[in-house]
Amino acid sequence: MTKIPVALATILCVLVAVVERTLCFNFETRLPVIKEGPENSYFGFSVAEHILTKTKPTTPFAESLLIVGAPIYQTNIDAIKPGGVFTCPFTSNYSDCTVLELDENGNTESDIKDNQWLGVAVVSQGPGGPVAACAHRHIYQPASVDEIQGLGKCYFMSADLQKDVFIRDGYQPCLSQTRPNNYDGILYKYCQAGTDVDVTRLKYTDSTSVSEYIMGVPGSDNWLGGIALANVPDSIRSINLITPLDFENNKVGFNSYLGFSVASAKLMDGNVQTYIAGAPRSESMGAVLTLKSEAGQSPSPIYRIDAEKPSSSFGYDVAAADVNGDGYDDLIVGAPQYFRRDPTNYQGGEGGRVYIYLNEAHDGTFENVEPIKLTGKIDSLFGQVVTNIGDINLDGFEDIAIGAPYENNGEGAVYIYLGHGQDGIRQPAAQKITPSDLPNGINGYPFPNTSFGYSISGGVDLDGNGFPEVAIGAYEVQQIAVLRGRPVINIEAQLTLSVTELDPNTTNCEYSGKDSLCFTVQLCMSYYCLAPAFNDPITINFDIEAEGVRRSKVLNSRVVFEESGIYSLTKQTLVITNDDEACTPEYNVILKAGFTDIFRPIPINLTYYIPEVEAVMPQPGDPLPSMTPFPILQENTQTIMLEEVIFSKECAKDDGLCITDLDVRASVDLEGTPPILKVGEQQEISMSAHIANREEDAYNAKLVVTYPAYLGFISLSSASQAFTADCNPEPFEEGANETSIICELGNPYSEGSVDSFVVLYDASSVPPDAEVFNITLVASSTNDADSNPGNNQYIITIEVESITDILISGKGPEQLYFSGQVIGESAMNYFEDIGLAVNQRWTIFNEGPGAVNTARVTIDFPYEVANGKWLLYMTEMPFVEDNKGSCNVTPAVYVNELGLKPKNGGGAYNPVAPGTGGTTQSRKRREAEAEAVTSTRELTAGKDITLDCKTGTAQCLTIICDLDPLTKETDMNEVNIVVRSRLWNSTFLEDYINARKVKIITEGYVEIESAPYITQTREDNDKFRLSLTITPDIKTLPPSKPLQWWIIALAVIGGIILLILLILLLWKCGFFERKTGYKYATVTQQQASGKAKTEKTAYYDDMYY
């Protein structure tokens, strides 16, 4: 359904006169020209301002158009969402846009127009200039080759939007490069020509120059990319690309997308065409190339600029604008994906950045040029669009617009920045435009309320008032908004006083029947506008006020205006005309009777502004309103003027000047150089101050003593009866860092005056970490000068030292006994199964007198023996009593690792969850418990054993407790830390049952953190070793059990068998043979029976004799 908004409430752009900059300069957001396109067409994806002729039309707005791309528009040709280009007249109607018949035929065998995105980019050279529109996804399918080629296509049109007669079916710059006889043809088959398009800028064309279309071809050569050029209007130059395979001299590599953005630019003199091309994916960083083309040659690179940060899409969009007015274009580069994390920023960081490189060399290079950096809000895509919008205020410097289409959760915003001769760009932005600045539509929602700023066009004066408009696209809601330029007025103002000096001892007028002293004030103004079309009278509102400084100090004004009876004339008006001066009447200023301040001049302030006129949105079909009623002051106009009247004085009669010399000195009653305040010992500070005037009278002389707010003022006194100064301490302000005593010395404070006084301060609240503070005394007057200004100020620097003594001690059971039976971990369910309770209480005490803001206690707690067995089992996380601090254990897995609980009920500290490191240690401990304990018992039998982490006989957990401040006051000078654990009974039954006693050492120490200003009187009490003695309970040890009979029987039988085996072994070895001194010989004798008999015969062996 078509939306038809009605006349609506307007959003006023109030000009606050006291502010130099205004957020409404100079596009009128109350009277937008809104155009709407077909739904689901992406109408507004691209936009260009255009005028059909170069001459001003006789009928206003008759030839002014908006050319709008709708790249997924469904036309009536035979193709799926081929896209379209619309022309929209500059009228108040919302839905009067018509589609251009650029593509009259549907798909053919060679031309595939489905989803070709016609309208992805549109461009106009300006009034009477050529126009181009592109479809970068157009597909060409050669008849002889079974493949498709994403070449892209662009349509060129004359100023009257008639298609170029030479290429009525569109121009495909990559087509000639993909033909079969071209060896490199494959490199250009996906060049996607027309991803961006531009045309030579109108201001740089003349009768002898040739305009050119510049097309980006980012897909050529494996997405290395390039640019293509075509002449305007009657011939097409053959494809001119960067030589794709030559990477030297500032070239880019594959997947750089060079040509994703393009722009025409004047970067140097001579008959040289220069261009800018973005490569947002170059080396994953992004880059921008400047290029040139001479005498019809292919463009060649001049210089390459690389991104400062990866993945920022540096070069996503580029533009050229002469922001500093030197006649050469400067380079504008968008990097919408830039991100910088900033924890101090409430949004978490910055998002999107725009770089402005000033063209200092005028040769296309930007060597050593430090860019101006403009940064947007996070997730805004600030810099996705950068556009030259012309000179919107006619000051001679071109201005730029930056789109942030997703700022404020996708609502979008456009920022207007003005060029500047010295700085290049004025900061901050002169105007920020958001959808909420526009009037509401008939549905109650603002006009374009999402993706606002996705496309921007500017620099064309569509309404003929001499100031260009800006067109802003919001493709997600199929709308564009054109904001019209308001006339920019330059004011010349003069505030004239009848006198510049008054004699306070005379009178020159009569007021209320009394002789008085008077003078007059008159304002004269005129204006000029650089746009010839504007020559209307302007109403100026102004205020004239006197004595602003005195009134800001709650002092009475010395003067009144006769016309108002008070110190000001407000809401006055003056109608001025172009170049003709208009003046107000002379206003009488009267000095009140009895004024005494004759040294301070009387200031007269003028503040002026142009009042806002209500703007009413026209009904659709009504004529567009003129911008004449809505002038605006030139940016940076000084709308405040000041003139002064002074008094003639006696001291100035000789040379016209009153020169004084106020001399200040001071000291404090503290020892040391510089003096040292010992917090806790010294409760008061006495400061002696001395002031003298060594030359001419000092008018409105005063002495200001400034000191830290934590010093309490007690009293101010002087021993001299001649001391007449009026001294008063300023009222204390909550949260203030400093406070002051102001002494009015006199008016005048006579030459030769000398005074002294003493200020007593309460120093009991000086923080111990103050380190150093100053008491500053400054003498001043309203005289013309001081002959020795160096002695007008005296600073006393006082160092702070905190004296204190912080100590630590520990208490716990001194001796415990172990007994009972060995119980394994798996059999334990309660803390009482482990053993006796071992509860420690550590006390940290500040003996003062100084305070300690940050103290840390570290306790080395022995939780296991060196062999890995439990020693003291920590049942819960240690804690500081009364919540005066917090504790942590490292590693925390050992705090109630088994997840046990007290037998009498109640909660238990939950152990660290599995997977945090406890499993490995538990397995290690179980393995240690499974080992034989005989060696340990033997080693410890009858001995005194000490288990101490420092000697390696035990292993410790580290308990760290950070304490709240410790002061000397009762209840604030002491904290207690509680550590609860259980003695692991089984370890002592297994390993230390034969030991005489076992001593367990726990060590704790306290340290003062980040406080070099604190001095401790003692440091030997910062550590404490807590000892616990463990001995076996002999009476309750389990009795030894008698051996079973079958064990004894088996032992006896085994012994007998072993003895028999030993005897047999010895016998076999000849152990039982008798040794003699004889040897034996074998003799065989024949017997009578005829049988032979063998016998052994002994013989004497003399070896033994």
Automatic annotation (TrEMBL):
Stretches assigned to the Integrin alpha first immunoglubulin-like domain: 486-650
Tagged with keyword Metal-binding: no
Annotated coiled-coil segments of the chain: none
Record keyword Repeat present: yes
Family stated for the protein in its record: Belongs to the integrin alpha chain family.
PANTHER family: INTEGRIN ALPHA, INTEGRIN ALPHA-PS1
Protein name: Uncharacterized protein
Species of provenance: Strongylocentrotus purpuratus (Purple sea urchin)
